């Protein structure tokens, strides 16, 4: 199977396609383990899942969730913490069992141990059935920045300067952006049974093209996805603009 790539006319169409993947697995395997991502890209995916829960009874009651990452130094109630993001955009609006929703604990005294425990927790839940990913403009997935090894596991990381700059748009000032995070590693992500990467907008075009068609290299951590058996890149036209023709992305109109 390898990498499949589908290009949609708009961000909304691409988001609905990802919501379809998540809805399907929730119906086929009600006790599924979902790997979830944050950032601006998946917001419409979560909004669509909430609509489907409200209008068609999409059921999260048996599902477990593991988020990719969390900033170090932000309490869960901080407006930019990923815990708050998930509560606002998904968990607080669907019938998921909150005891089965997980984010890395970045408030522990021993962050290294906390990261190891998260890795163990993901694996002891049976691994992730469907992992949702975004991509950073530098090719990061989760907070696995350029330079990350393929065998990396959940751990404490320093954010790249370009990521701090990019994510400063969510904060009053760049100085407020945390410098560290706990993130699942590349090997944690690759152990998911199925991976769906959503990328939209021109700013992602370089990273997407390198991930799909460039060499598999630490310089673009998303390129390690080429080593996975079941990855689906879901793109809009802008994010797909630099993908070479030989990649044969299918297009929907
Ligand atoms: C963040 C997150 C990633 C996310 C990426 C892109 O820093 N850690 O999981 O995929 O950056 O974010 P956005 O969707 O806002 O462009």
Write the layout of secondary structure elements.
Layout: E1 2-8, H1 11-28, E2 33-36, H2 43-56, E3 64-67, E4 69-71, H3 82-89, E5 101-102, H4 111-124, E6 130-133, E7 155-158, H5 161-167, E8 180-183, H6 186-190, E9 194-199, H7 205-213, E10 230-236, H8 237-240, E11 250-251
Parallel strand pairs: 1-10, 1-11, 2-3, 2-6, 3-5, 6-9, 9-10
Antiparallel strand pairs: 4-8, 7-8
Helix pairs in contact: 1-2
The structure holds 2-amino-2-deoxy-6-O-phosphono-alpha-D-glucopyranose.
Residues 37-41, 68-69, 134-136, 142-143, 163, 167 line the site of 2-amino-2-deoxy-6-O-phosphono-alpha-D-glucopyranose (GLP).
Give a quick set of tags describing it.
253 residues; alpha/beta; eight-stranded parallel β-sheet; three-stranded antiparallel β-sheet; globular; binds 2-amino-2-deoxy-6-O-phosphono-alpha-D-glucopyranose
Kindly describe this structure:
This protein is 31% helix and 19% strand. With 253 residues, the protein is an alpha/beta fold. The strands form 2 sheets. The chain has an 8-stranded parallel β-sheet with strand order 5-3-2-6-9-10-1-11, sandwiched between helices. It is globular, with a radius of gyration of 17 Å. It starts with a strand and ends with a strand. The model has no long low-confidence stretch (mean pLDDT 96). 2-amino-2-deoxy-6-O-phosphono-alpha-D-glucopyranose binds at residues 37-41, 68-69, 134-136, 142-143, 163, 167.
Summarize the structure.
With 253 residues, this protein is of the alpha/beta class.
């Amino acid at each position: 199977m390898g990498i499949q790539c589908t290009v949609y006319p708009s961000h909304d169409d691409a988001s609905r396609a990802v919501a379809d993947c998540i809805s399907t697995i929730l119906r086929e395997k009600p006790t599924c383990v979902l790997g979830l991502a944050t950032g601006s890209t998946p917001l419409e995916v979560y909004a669509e899942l909430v609509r489907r829960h409200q209008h068609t009874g999409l059921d999260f009651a048996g599902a477990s969730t593991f988020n990719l990452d969390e900033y170090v130094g932000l309490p869960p109630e901080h407006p930019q913490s990923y815990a708050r993001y998930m509560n606002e955009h998904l968990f607080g609006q669907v019938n998921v069992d909150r005891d089965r929703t997980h984010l890395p604990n970045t408030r522990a005294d021993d962050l290294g141990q906390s990261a190891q425990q998260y890795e163990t927790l993901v694996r002891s839940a049976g691994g992730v059935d469907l992992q949702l990913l975004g991509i950073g403009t530098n090719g990061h997935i989760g907070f696995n920045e350029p330079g990350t090894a393929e065998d990396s596991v959940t751990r404490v990381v320093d954010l790249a300067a370009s990521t701090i700059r990019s994510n400063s748009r969510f904060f009053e000032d760049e100085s407020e952006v945390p410098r560290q995070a706990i993130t699942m590693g590349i090997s944690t992500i690759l152990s998911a049974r199925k991976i769906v990467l959503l990328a939209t907008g021109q700013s992602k075009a370089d990273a997407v093209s390198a991930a799909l068609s460039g060499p598999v290299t630490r310089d673009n951590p998303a390129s390690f996805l080429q080593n996975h058996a079941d990855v689906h890149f879901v793109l809009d036209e802008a994010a797909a603009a630099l993908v070479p023709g030989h990649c044969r992305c299918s297009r929907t109109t």
